[in-house]
Amino acid sequence: PLSLITKLGYAIPAFSKMSCLLILNVNALIFYETKGASLLLISFFTALARCIELFLKPIIAFSSDNSNFKKGRRKPFMLFGCGFYCVFLVLIFSPPFKHMTPIATSLWFGVFYVLFFIADTICTIPYHALGPELSIDSKEREQLYLYVFAFQYIGVLLTSIGPVLIQKIVNHCDCSYCSDRTDSLDVAQCFLTCNSECGVTSNEKSLLYMCMIIGTLFVLSIIFLTTIVKEDKKSFNSHEKSYIVPTLYRMMMNKPFIKLLLPYVLDVLITQILATMLPFFITYIINPAKYCKDNDINLSFSQCSANSWLGITMFAFFVCSLFT
Q1: DSSP label of 38
Q2: Residue 113 phi/psi, 5° resolution?
Q3: How far apart are the C-alpha atoms of 39 and 28, rounded to whole Å?
Q4: pLDDT at residue 248 is higher than 80
Q5: Which tens digit of pLDDT belongs to each residue from 198-218?
Q6: Cα 306 → chain centroid
Q7: How far, in whole angstroms, is CA 170 from its chain's centroid?
Q8: CA within 13 Å, CB half, 15
Q9: Which of 21, 199, 249, 323 has the fewest CB within 10 Å, making it most exposed?
Q10: Which residues are within 8 A (CB) of 306 and not within 5 positions of it... i.e. 6 or more apart?
């Protein structure tokens, strides 16, 4: 039987992992578009990261399966990757200069986005492999993954609404200098510009702080997991040498795996379509910034931010999906 501390230790990293994917798939697009990045280059680097991940995953899986570290087959990879995971996540949302060229902004996103998914693969592939090795009892595994799914949903819900709450805390606009202008039109334009810039800045800060929280929690949760869990020595392939091509061939001959592959692909496809289209729909169709301008609402308010409505929408979506 798995102890409660073991189940919690294995489940807590799932909180941060799903949170990271939500922020990167949904919020990063709007973040870099406001920075002036090229959507073409963003699309290219997103596809490049996924292609590298596609080839890297079986390599990391094979390396982890055949490793003989004293700490185990999984834990060294997890400990090595988690620090880079946190650092690259934070760097994605912290471009060094306020006014970078579109090419430089796109390159900053591309480099650290690709590096993040490399670190993610190094860390999370052994993490996923560790779960089934913790117990041979199917009921214990069911309970273990029940905890994992619970923490995933908690992470997604808090991350979808978290930047909105943080933005309310960090949103301190001082546009009093606009009152010193003599022309009433200049005053109105000054307030409009100031509030708009303040709203963008507070939104960027909220995403950065959220990434720092998630990344730090992920590192601490991996350290905690590797401390409390001891890998079963019987699972090590010390006397059995395997090769990557026959291993992949055996996987493709696994009938339950093949039957589950299509539903999994469709599930991911639907989720990715939603994550890709929703930011554009809210930014350009709903267009809360335009609504606030037309109704003379302060642009620094959270209801004028596309990211705020994006967070509320995702929160509502995942609450509904939790029941369905």
Answers
A1: -
A2: -65, -45
A3: 11
A4: no
A5: 666 777 788 888 899 999 999
A6: 18
A7: 22
A8: 24
A9: 323
A10: 30, 279, 282, 283, 286, 287, 288, 289
Assess contact for 2 and 143: CB atoms under 8 A.
yes
CB 45 within 8 A of CB 109: yes
Question: 56 near 178, Cβ under 8 Å?
Answer: no
CA neighbor of 81 nearest in space, from 17, 19, 150, 21: 17
Q: Quick: pLDDT tens for 144-199.
A: 999 999 998 888 888 888 887 887 776 666 666 666 666 665 666 676 666 666 66
pTM > 0.85: no
DSSP state string for 272-324? HHHHHHHHHIIIIII-HHHHHHHTT--TTSGGG-HHHHHHHHHHHHHHHHHH-
Q: 184-217: buried (b, 16+ CB within 10 Å) or exposed (e) per residue?
A: eeeeeebbbebbbebbbbbbbbbbbbbbebbbeb
The type of residue at 157 is L
The pair of structure tokens assigned to 17 is 């992992």
Amino acid in position 239: H
Q: How far apart are CA 242 and CA 267, in angstroms?
A: 32
Tokens of 162: 């978290």
Reported residue count of the chain is 324
Query: Does residue 239 carry a pLDDT above 60?
Result: no
18 is written with which tokens?
Answer: 């799903």
Q: Give the C-alpha distances (Å, rounded to integers) separating 144 from 103, 116, 136, 147, 226.
A: 45, 27, 12, 5, 16
